[in-house]
Write a structure and sequence with these properties.
There is one protein chain. The chain has about 140 residues and is of the alpha/beta class. It is built from four helices and four strands, in the order βαβαβαβα. Strands 2-1-3-4 form a four-stranded parallel β-sheet. It is globular and about 45 Å long.
Length: about 140
């Protein structure tokens, strides 16, 4: 059996987008991969991100907001940046790490009523979910 792959999801503050993708990839990849998420800064886990994931049946309330430096010794197979800022300031990883980038809108910057903000979180969640399924399909042959 192939060894477990290490996947890092990287964002600016490791509070929303990276946490959403982390949750979906853990669910989809299971034992095939160890999924980590981190930020180039640490902003704490966003409660709205936890809420919209719970609406979709995933509990990410146990996730922590981590700084990229905490994983300096982990040999990553994949580094997935989910915002342009993280991609721009992302440190150099070993050449073995395959890099993927997709810039998702930041739902933490949403404005409006609570329902309008929640709707923006749901939209980003759904985009991240589709991306996670595509990544699992193309990189891990999971249908």
């Amino acid at each position: 059996m192939e060894s477990k792959k290490n996947v890092l999801v990287l964002c600016t503050g490791n509070s929303c987008r990276s946490q959403l993708l982390h949750g979906y990839l853990e669910q989809l990849l299971g034992e095939r991969a160890a999924v980590y998420s981190a930020g180039v800064e640490v902003h704490g886990l966003n409660p709205r991100a936890v809420r919209v994931m719970a609406e979709d049946g995933l509990d990410i309330s146990h996730h922590t907001s981590n700084h990229l430096d905490e994983y300096a010794a982990v040999p990553f197979d994949y580094v997935l940046t989910v915002c342009d800022h993280a991609q721009e300031v992302c440190p150099v990883f070993p050449s073995t790490a395959q890099k993927r980038h997709h810039n998702f809108p930041d739902p933490a910057k949403a404005t409006g009523t609570e329902e309008e903000i929640s709707q923006q979180f749901r939209q980003v969640r759904d985009q991240v979910k589709a991306y996670a399924h595509d990544f699992a399909r193309t990189e891990f042959s999971i249908t």
